[in-house]
Request: fold
Amino acid sequence: MQVALPVDSLSMTTKSKDFHVTAVDAEFRERAIVHLRSVQSAWLDLLSTSDLRRARPTEISRRLGMTSSMAWKIWKFAHTSDVSQASKHLPGAGGVQILLKAARANGVPKKCVDEVHDADRALRRFVSEHAGSRRTFEAMLAGTLRTEESDYEERRAMYRAGSIVWGVRARVQMGAMIIKPSDNAPGMIDTITLSGLFDFERLRADIPWIIRRSLQIDSPDHDPTARRPLVSPTSDEHSLSLIPKYCSGPLPGIRELVGPDKMVYTEIVSTPVGRSGATTTVMGDLFTDCDIGGPGAEGVFANMELHTPVEYAVNDVYIHEDLAQLTDPRVHVFSRIEHRPNTCDLENLQVALYQPTTASELGAHRIGEPRSGVPNARIDVYEEMLADAIGLAGWRRDLRFRGFRAELTYPPVPCRLTLHSELRT
Reply:
């Protein structure tokens, strides 16, 4: 018999090793900062000598005979405290020579001009030796001096470019896992998984797009009732888990493809281009009698695979109050640019894009009730969806759960957003 287990939403594996992140190249960072600050200082001295340190670009352009665009670049470079941002405004070598020639012609002392010239040449030698090009240098520097603001801007630019390159985009990708003790098997758990892609658009016609990847298991010993869609499929041709109430109407065209790698690929078929063809798909499954407490077990991993350029991604976990053996989850963001094995070995087979963080606490709630107190401003029907999932699974609506959230704006696709709850020792 065949049973499909969504790898995008649920993973329970053996014990992983301690998480480890490689240190940044501190020497490169420090030397790059020294060179950039040296050039900034030389330009500020040149402007100060001409009584232009506090002048606006228009005044610098008029007084030193520079074009307005060149004057703006120098002003921005000299006055930006974030060196990774400042490096983007430094004019090219040819432009610097034009600026210095204009400065000399307008009476700037030779000493100030020479100091800028020497510092600029030293910086460019460093860039050539360690990066080969300005663009590569800026990327290397940004990687060692990542800030929340710069990282956000880079991810947003990646989303915009990715939407154009791949020809698709979506507003929200959502995942949620709700777990409670099994009703039938002591020590086991039952799990609801929800996944959704909201306002998915094609920007080019006839772009095939996979929205879910599932693992197909062939085992005569496997109980087919261990997993079932929350809403029974309307066709016998596939095991789709659509929840029609929360999908766009008419239901989006979806098909399943079974690959030789025993993976089941769920694909959105052709839709009109642009907003008129936007679709929303929400899927839900129930897993029963899952083992998280066996020898070497490491708890629960809620994995959300992100392959679609999307504005906002959110992954929630709701843990029943009686499952005190599970810790509050940690958030991990892993690269999926390489097709690495689907494993939760956090050290050897996962490439971290960020340091792990603590998940946001949503508090304790009866999420089976229509107004559960766990809203999401990006998904209007979120609370209703959770409550319906509890009802479709046949669970009591008065159960209490501790909620945790991982969210990322403009996620750097392809990546995996993971919530990991360990077993307490």
